[in-house]
Amino acid sequence: MQSFARASVKPGTSMGASVRPSPDVSPVVRPYVGPEELTRERAATLPPYVVFLNNDDVNSMDYVVHSLLTCVPELDEGEAVSIMLEAHESGRAQVIVCPLERAELYRDRLKSRRLTATIERA
Question: Is the pTM of this model over 0.85?
Answer without folding.
Answer: no
